[in-house]
Amino acid sequence: MSSTANVESAPGTAEVKCTCHLTAADALVKKYTYWSAGAGLLPVGGVDLLAIGGVQLKLVSELSELYGVKFSEHRVKNIIAVLISSVGTGTMLRGVAASAVKLIPLVGSLSGMLALPIVAGASTYALGKVFVVHFETGGTLLDFDPEKTREYFAAKYKEGQKVAADMKSAA
């Protein structure tokens, strides 16, 4: 079995090249999916969203380093915003609402801590998978076109919801 067996080409990307980075990239995606879900458990509304964003930036930074791609925080922030908006306003609002509800003492913290880790984990998982495919196919941050990967991101987000839920139940 080749090292690219778990990578599928996203729409708008070239054929996947065989690199030896896939195992390490998948480990990074898994690690930061856990970290992102954990950041969703932070009890203070707003701080949790900042932490999740930081985790996602760190994931893309480490993937960039792994693949030898020059990292640009500004460019990645813009890409993340476009990709996350591709799963719909409802999903984004659920994440923001789950964070905001934590401002309500006791009940709010508990409610927000139940919902946000799944959204955070799923979005980080999807983000990682999109960048792994892009970098595996020789892409850089300069030629990344978020519009071409919206559907792929949305599909990986749904897959990520299951992954994050499994992580949550295993914890």
Task: Measure the end-to-end span.
Answer: 31 Å
Indicate the overall shape: globular
Mean of the pLDDT scores? 82
Q: Report low-confidence residues grouped into runs of 5 or more.
A: 1-6
Count of structural domains: 1
Strand content: under 5%
Give the radius of gyration.
16 Å
Mind summarizing the main beta sheet? Answer: none
Number of DSSP E strands: 0
Fraction of helical residues: 55-70%
Q: Can you count the helices?
A: 6
Structural class: mainly alpha
What is the element string, with H for helices and E for strands? Answer: HHHHHH
Please provide a written account of the structure.
With 171 residues, the chain is mainly alpha-helical. It has one domain. It is 70% helix and 0% strand. The protein is built from six helices and no strands. It has helices at residues 22-39, 47-67, 73-85, 89-100, 107-136, 146-170. The two termini are 31 Å apart. The model is unreliable at 1-6 (pLDDT under 50).
Question: What's this model, at a glance?
Answer:
By secondary structure, this protein is mostly helical.
Secondary-structure blueprint of this entry?
Layout: H1 22-39, H2 47-67, H3 73-85, H4 89-100, H5 107-136, H6 146-170
Helix pairs in contact: 1-2, 1-5, 2-3, 2-5, 3-6, 4-5, 5-6
What key phrases describe this protein's structure?
6 helices, disordered N terminus, 171 residues, single chain, globular, mainly alpha
